[in-house]
Each structure stands twice: as structure tokens, then as C-alpha cells.
Design a protein that fits this description.
about 500 residues, 17 helices, alpha+beta, binds (2R)-2-hydroxypentanedioic acid, 16 strands, Uridine Diphospho-n-acetylenolpyruvylglucosamine Reductase, domain 3, five-stranded antiparallel sheet, Alpha-Beta Plaits, binds zinc ion, disordered N terminus, binds flavin-adenine dinucleotide, seven-stranded antiparallel sheet
């Protein structure tokens, strides 16, 4: 029993710049083009403006798939500067893309054309923690791992955790309503966020972050509008997040399963035997495991079996003896091919690296088509099998992994030869239509970004999409905020 924390290296956000980019939406003709006079005006309003070659890395996304052509990056240090930048851009009809850690996986954080990039990374002050309520107040640009480290010093933890924690920002997490590996324990960030300060497109600062109260039912929940809005409704500048207490005793079990049904049984048994100490249930298939093992030659799979699935079950509790007894009961109750419990903190970290390293391993190997879907648990893995069959004649790697505890599958198809129209056409819209046929969601946790607006109708009714368009026009009448993202042009 030990106090554990897996440490991630910083996600390398700048890759080779050599992969081809995806097809993009046509530029809106109502938006202006940035002139030299605008740059001078923005320089007067914002304490840091990045220009020219230095702006290039901010234009290319983490996956090396999407590239914009922004001339400048505004990096405000205060809410007032954010407000001044937006007020100016709104008046001049200059489009703005807000960017946090740029780890988003749907091309939401980079411009599509020549939008001004508004980087939040200097809004990185942690204002404080209310130890009575567990509510932490901080700037939107605080890196998730930094926030979590701060909280741990005070015996609290962030209510979410994900593989990009060393780079992503809490503002980006909120803007995408990120899920991650603790969702099964702490639920959605929507529940944890008790206050937000945000800036509307016209520069108005809306302060709903004045309190660290956990309960406040005074009318419309405005922060909820911003959560998951992916930079299309406003810029989040500050947040108040209710954080759980630290559960210091952590265990990680690594199990080999022969079928996806076996994986599902592990999940139900974990829920019933581990109860409140269950803190993660993740799975990988053979394709994902091979990719991550290849990328981490220093790490060995402790299980020698060829069984096609691995499940990572983590517990985190406050009483080492009680936790050990529960874990024992869980291990006795499951029927799997093989399994082990990590004997040391470094062994735990290695297992987490195998799981969280899959995304990076796939992306480093070639061009990756990524699908992040929710499906009914009983048919969750069928999509991976059908995809493998559909692409059998092509030389591509298919991997299925994800947050099985939340019925969230990540389907990755990697083509080492680069982007191929033929592969793309076989995958889309087919994958999204398959998901819709199974009554799943085409975006479980990554959002819509620039990759999926044209498929939004598969999850939203006409009336719901129209209302989304109306809300957009109320919040951002000149449609300058993150254009070409989330909403299809048809509802604007
Ligand atoms: P960015 O990528 O910079 O931006 C994402 C979106 O939010 C953009 O649309 C942007 O315009 C908007 N935005 C950013 N900041 C603000 C703000 N302050 N105000 C308004 N809009 C804003 N996601 C998960 O949900 N679960 C996972 O388990 C997970 N694992 C990942 C693992 C890896 C290795 C990587 C690379 C990514 C992973 N992601 C995961 C995706 C990504 O990390 C999350 O979506 C994260 O929340 C994005 O945060 P960011 O600061 O990098 O935001
Ligand atoms: C994960 O859970 C992330 O590892 C990334 O959400 C998934 O890259 C992906 O497809
Ligand atoms: Zn994920």
C-alpha cells in the first residue's frame, strides 16, 4: 500500500509538420482580414502578442492533422486584457480561436483559416482553496497537473485526470467538458464546476465565480452553457472547482481477458465489490497494447499471455487494510485468464503509461483517424471488430481502448503511409452512422471541434441544433468566436 501518483512527461505539442492536413471548411466571407493597423491596436490592448514564425507552432494541432494560418497570437495576462482583445476583434469582425494547452483531439484549438489565436496560458494564477468546501479558484490557463499538485499539497485532488494532464489547462478541460480516467469515480466536470468567470464576444466580463458555495440555485446555470462549448460562446477566464479529498492508498490491478464479455464482467464485479474505492477501469485491446509496448521498449507487459484484452483497475481509498480486503474480494470474484497487482509505485506508473501511452503511440506512428464514442456496453467492442473487417484489405493498424467504466471507446486507425482519401472515405461517415444506429454518441468526451460539425445531426434533433444556433447568435452575434467549430454552417 502506498501513496501513488503517476507522473506524465509534458505532451509534446509540436511535431514534424510533415503530415498532410485534413480538408477544411470554406472561409466565412463576413469575417475581416487582419491588417497591420489591427496588430498595432491589439498590441496596445494586450501585454503579449506573438507574431510571424513564432506564431506557427500555435497553428498546428497536437495530432499534426489540422493547421491554421493565424498571423498573431494574443496572450493576455488578465481578464481585462481578454476583454479588451475581444471587444476590439468583435468591433472589427476579426475571428478569434481560444487556445489552452492545445491538446484537444478534434482540431478545436487551432484556427481553420486566419483567426486570431487567443492563448490563455498566462491566466495561470491559483487564487486559493477553501478547505471547508474543497472549492479551488484559479485562472483558466492553469495546467491540470499543476492544479492537481497544488491540491495534493492540501490533501485534495482534481476531480479529473487524463493523459494530457501535464499540458492541458483547466479552462480547456471545462471548454471541452473533458472526461478522462477518473470520470467513473467523480463524474462529469459539469458537476464539479461551481463557478466560472467568462468573457463574451463583445468583451463583457460575466462574473459567476464570486462564490465557493457548493450549492447555488439562483436562476439559470450560466457556467453550464460555457462548459463543453469549445470556445464558441465565450472565453473562460477563471473557475471554481469543487475537489474531492485525497484518497492516499492506491492499488492497480492489471488483468488479461479472453473476450470483451470478460472485460465487461470485470467491470460489473469491480463496481459491486470495490464500491467507493474504485477509481478507474480502463481497457486496451491487442492492437492498442502492441502499439504502446512498441513505443515504450523499457516497459514489459507483466502478463505473458496472448489474451486479446488488458483491463486496468485502480482503487484509491483512505484505509489501507480495508482497501486491501476489498481488492482481495474483487480478485477472488473475477474469472480472468491472468492478472497481477502492481507491487510498487513504479510498477503502477508503468501500467498507467501502457494505458495512457496508446494515444501518443498511435499518433507518433502515422496518420491516425480517431473516433471517441459512447456506446451501449454490450455492443461497445463490435465497432472495433467491424472496422477491422472493413479495412482488412488495407495495410492499417486498428486499436480499441478507453474508459470502459464509462462505456467510452477510443477507436484509432493508424496509417503509417500517411493520409489516404480511400481510408478516410471508408471510415466516414460510416463510423458515425454505425454509432448513431446503435444509439451511441459520436463524441463521448473530446468534443466536436472542426472534425465533426457535419455529423452533429446524428446526435441532435433539428430543434436542438436550431436552439444551439440561436444561443450562439445571442452570445456572439457577429459569429467571431471559434468559427467552423461545433455548429454546422446550416444553423447559423
Ligand atoms: P485546447 O486543446 O487548447 O482547446 C480545446 C477546446 O477548448 C478548443 O475548442 C478551444 O477553443 C477551447 N478552449 C480552450 N480553453 C478555453 C477557454 N479558456 N475558454 C473557452 N474555450 C477554451 N480528453 C478527454 O476528455 N479525456 C481524456 O482521457 C483525454 N486524454 C487525452 C490524452 C492525450 C495524450 C491527449 C493529447 C489528449 C487527451 N484528451 C482527453 C483531449 C484533451 O486533452 C482535452 O480535450 C483537454 O480538455 C483539452 O485541454 P486544452 O487546455 O489542451 O485545450
Ligand atoms: C485517452 O483516453 C484519450 O487516452 C485519447 O482520450 C484517446 O487519442 C485518443 O483517441
Ligand atoms: Zn479518453
Amino acid at each position: 500500500m502506498r501513496l501513488a501518483r503517476h507522473i506524465r512527461r509534458r505532451t509534446d505539442a509540436v511535431r514534424s509538420f510533415s503530415a498532410p492536413t485534413m480538408p477544411v471548411a470554406k472561409r466565412h466571407d463576413w469575417l475581416s482580414t487582419l491588417e497591420d493597423a489591427d496588430v498595432a491596436n491589439l498590441n496596445a490592448r494586450c501585454s503579449k502578442i506573438i507574431e510571424g514564425a513564432d506564431a506557427k507552432p500555435y497553428n498546428r494541432d497536437w495530432m499534426d492533422k489540422c493547421e491554421g494560418k493565424a498571423r498573431i497570437v494574443a496572450q493576455p495576462a488578465t481578464t481585462e486584457e481578454v476583454s479588451a482583445v475581444l471587444a476590439y476583434c468583435n468591433e472589427k469582425r476579426l475571428a478569434v480561436t481560444t487556445q489552452g494547452g492545445k491538446t484537444g483531439l478534434v482540431g478545436g484549438s487551432v484556427p481553420v483559416h486566419d483567426e486570431v489565436i487567443l492563448s490563455t496560458t498566462r491566466l495561470n494564477t491559483i487564487e486559493g482553496l477553501d478547505k471547508d468546501t474543497g472549492v479551488v479558484t484559479c485562472g483558466a490557463g492553469v495546467v491540470l497537473e499543476t492544479l492537481d499538485a497544488y491540491l495534493r499539497e492540501h490533501d485534495f485532488v482534481a476531480p479529473l485526470d487524463l493523459g494530457a494532464a501535464g499540458t492541458c489547462t483547466i479552462g480547456g478541460n471545462l471548454a471541452t467538458n473533458a472526461g478522462g480516467v477518473r470520470f467513473v469515480r467523480y463524474g462529469s466536470l459539469r458537476g464539479a464546476c461551481v463557478g466560472l468567470e467568462f468573457v463574451k464576444a463583445d468583451g463583457t466580463v460575466v462574473d459567476c465565480a464570486r462564490t465557493s458555495l457548493r450549492k447555488d440555485n439562483t436562476g439559470y446555470a450560466l457556467p453550464q452553457l460555457l462548459i463543453g462549448s469549445e470556445g464558441t460562446l465565450g472565453v473562460i477566464t477563471k473557475c471554481c472547482i469543487a475537489c474531492p479529498s485525497l484518497s492516499p492508498f492506491v492499488n492497480v490491478a492489471w488483468l488479461a481477458c479472453n473476450s470483451f464479455d470478460e472485460v465487461r464482467k470485470v467491470l460489473t464485479t469491480a463496481r459491486s465489490t470495490l464500491g467507493e474505492i474504485l477509481s478507474a477501469v480502463e481497457f486496451l485491446d491487442r492492437g492498442a497494447l502492441d502499439a504502446t509496448l512498441r513505443a515504450h521498449p523499457d516497459i514489459e507487459d507483466p502478463l505473458e499471455t496472448d489474451a486479446p484484452f488488458r483491463v486496468l483497475v485502480e482503487t484509491a481509498g483512505c484505509d489501507a487494510t480495508h482497501d486491501a480486503a476489498k481488492l482481495e474480494r474483487f480478485l477472488e470474484a473475477i474469472d480472468v485468464e491472468d492478472g497481477c497487482v502492481a507491487p510498487t509505485t513504479s510498477a503502477m506508473n508503468a501500467l498507467w503509461t501502457l494505458r495512457e501511452g496508446v494515444s501518443d503511440a498511435m499518433t507518433s506512428r502515422g496518420f491516425v483517424y480517431k473516433y471517441d464514442v459512447s456506446l451501449p456496453p454490450s455492443t461497445l467492442y463490435d465497432l472495433v471488430e467491424k472496422t477491422t473487417e472493413r479495412l482488412e484489405h488495407l495495410d492499417v493498424d486498428v486499436a480499441g481502448y478507453g474508459h470502459v467504466g464509462d462505456a467510452n471507446l477510443h477507436l484509432n486507425v493508424c496509417d503509417v503511409t500517411g493520409y489516404r482519401e480511400e481510408v478516410h472515405a471508408l471510415l466516414e461517415p460510416w463510423v458515425y452512422e454505425e454509432v448513431a444506429r446503435s444509439r451511441g454518441s459520436i463524441s463521448a468526451e473530446h468534443g466536436v471541434g472542426q472534425c465533426k460539425p457535419e455529423y452533429l445531426h446524428l446526435n441532435k434533433s433539428v430543434e436542438a441544433m436550431d436552439l444551439m444556433g440561436s444561443l450562439k447568435k445571442v452570445m456572439d452575434p457577429h459569429l467571431i468566436l471559434n468559427p467552423y467549430k461545433v455548429l454546422p454552417a446550416s444553423v447559423l
